[in-house]
């Protein structure tokens, strides 16, 4: 049975709808690419920023030569809507926010991004670019279309579609089946499957992950576990197992349970043993039990250069002013979240990142140059962000640079 809601006011219904629609907005890992720009030398980064304005939100993508100072938007490419941004082998890819089109950019000798080529992936019900994309090689990548429940296989260099994987078997009647941010490991892609109904405010109470074989472009199996809710981006443990954090769609499952006056499910860690396609029934870690009572509220991001270590944000309700409800859209707007280091394994060791300021959920973190970068600040209506760099070597974070809007991703192009 799906988790539902008792009747509530129109305002609170709208608040929960906005939260559901925004859930899991944090994006994927960086890809280091050494060669970019003809005749160019020195570091070059692609920075994606989401700027919200009264007329809507836009993605700004630009290149910078260093991650310091004040990053303005003067040279940025503006893309309307909730657009997406990736990079691979020195090229920048932008998924348009208002049409199903993927555009490939290459930096010129000055580092400025120039459109190289594009392709459209129009399918029934597909109106924009999805969040899930994974690069397998210079000639092969997967783009996950949850509206069509399929995976487009395409050549990211020539920008042509070469195949398609049907995932129609994942459809759950009455729900939109979202395919979230995937993880590639040992020739397999692990993609979270998140069924939700935005009209009835229901979330299917399970952690579900589809597993694809990249050699045969087939669905190997689906791992499903009802002990927690909502799979997020998987991380690989030291023994090759794949760990999945059930974070309740950025804690919204727990919000809905509070509204209904029912017991909230825990946020938890589950794992898929190496080479298998099912969750280990004997493995379960209640996140609050290893963080001193704090639940997880975001996906995990693998620690750069540290196999078996990941970071995720925990919710600390003590940072929310007394008397303020967290059952509406205000949850995401509170600076009530902090990153914790998770050493994965049979016994998970959790350590709070220190120093670090409280932050909102925002778009999570992005790994580059051995650091995890994340934003801190009021980013509503064109606000400013102070981007912090989390250093896994010290487990601490410090300010790195500033920009307008919310940090979406950073990628190193060369």
Descriptive key words:
414 residues; mainly beta; 4 helices; 31 strands; 8% helix
Summarize the structure.
With 414 residues, the protein is mostly beta strands.
Give an account of the 3D structure:
With 414 residues, the chain is mainly β. It is 8% helix and 43% strand. It contains 4 helices and 31 strands. Strands 13, 14, 15, 16, 17 and 18 form a 6-stranded antiparallel β-sheet that branches. A hairpin with a 5-residue loop joins strand 7 (101-107) and strand 8.
SSE blueprint and pairings:
Blueprint: H1 10-22, E1 45-53, E2 56-64, E3 69-71, E4 77-80, E5 84-88, E6 91-95, E7 101-107, E8 113-120, E9 133-137, E10 140-145, E11 150-155, E12 160-166, E13 176-179, E14 183-185, E15 188-197, E16 202-203, E17 207-213, E18 218-225, E19 235-236, E20 242-246, H2 248-260, E21 268-272, E22 285-286, H3 287-290, E23 301-302, E24 309-315, H4 330-333, E25 337-343, E26 349-352, E27 365-368, E28 371-376, E29 384-391, E30 396-404, E31 406-412
Parallel strand pairs: 3-30
Antiparallel strand pairs: 1-2, 1-31, 2-4, 5-6, 6-7, 7-8, 9-10, 10-11, 11-12, 13-15, 14-15, 15-16, 15-17, 17-18, 19-20, 20-21, 21-22, 23-24, 24-25, 25-26, 27-28, 28-29, 29-30
Largest sheet: 6 strands, antiparallel
Number of strands: 31
Please state the overall shape, judged from the principal axes of the Cα atoms.
Answer: globular
Estimated share of beta-strand residues = 35-45%
Main structural class: mainly beta
Low-confidence stretches: 1-19, 22-39
Total of DSSP H or I helical runs spanning 4+ residues = 4
N- and C-termini, Cα separation:
49 Å
Binned, the helix content reads under 10%
């Amino acid at each position: 049975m799906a988790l539902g809601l008792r009747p509530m006011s129109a305002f609170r219904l709208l608040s929960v709808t906005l939260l559901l629609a925004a859930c899991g907005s944090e994006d994927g890992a960086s890809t280091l690419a050494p060669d970019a720009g003809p005749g160019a030398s020195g570091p070059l980064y692609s920075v994606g920023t989401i700027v919200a304005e009264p007329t809507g939100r836009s993605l700004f993508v630009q290149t910078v030569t260093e991650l310091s100072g004040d990053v303005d938007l003067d040279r940025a490419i503006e893309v309307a809507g909730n657009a997406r941004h990736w990079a691979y082998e020195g090229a920048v890819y932008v998924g348009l926010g208002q049409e199903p089109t993927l555009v490939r950019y290459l930096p010129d000798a000055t580092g400025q991004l120039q459109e190289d080529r594009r392709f459209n992936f129009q399918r029934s019900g597909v109106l924009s670019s999805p969040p899930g994309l994974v690069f397998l090689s210079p000639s092969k990548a997967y783009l996950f279309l949850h509206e069509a429940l399929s995976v487009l296989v395409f050549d990211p260099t020539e920008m042509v579609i070469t195949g398609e994987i049907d995932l129609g078997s994942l459809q759950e009647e009455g729900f939109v089946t979202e395919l979230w941010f995937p993880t590639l490991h040992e020739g397999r892609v692990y993609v979270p499957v998140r069924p939700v109904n935005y009209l009835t405010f229901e979330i299917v109470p399970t952690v579900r992950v589809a597993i694809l074989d990249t050699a045969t472009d087939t669905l190997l199996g689906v791992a499903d576990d009802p002990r927690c809710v909502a799979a997020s981006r998987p991380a690989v443990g030291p023994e090759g197992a794949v760990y999945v954090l059930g974070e309740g769609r950025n804690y919204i499952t727990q919000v809905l349970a509070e509204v209904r006056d029912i017991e909230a499910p825990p946020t938890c860690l589950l794992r898929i043993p190496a080479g298998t396609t099912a969750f280990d029934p004997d493995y379960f870690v209640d996140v609050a039990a290893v963080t001193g009572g704090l639940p997880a509220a975001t996906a995990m991001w693998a620690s750069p250069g540290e196999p078996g270590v990941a970071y995720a944000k925990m919710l600390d309700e003590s940072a929310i002013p007394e008397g303020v409800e967290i059952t509406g859209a205000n949850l995401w707007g509170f600076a009530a979240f902090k990153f914790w280091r998770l050493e994965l394994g049979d016994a998970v060791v959790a350590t709070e990142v220190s120093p670090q300021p409280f932050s909102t959920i925002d778009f999570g973190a992005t790994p580059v140059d051995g650091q995890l970068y994340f934003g801190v600040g009021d980013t509503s209506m064109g606000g400013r962000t102070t981007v912090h760099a989390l250093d896994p070597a010290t487990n601490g974070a410090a300010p790195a640079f500033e920009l307008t809007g919310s940090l979406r991703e950073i990628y190193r192009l060369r």
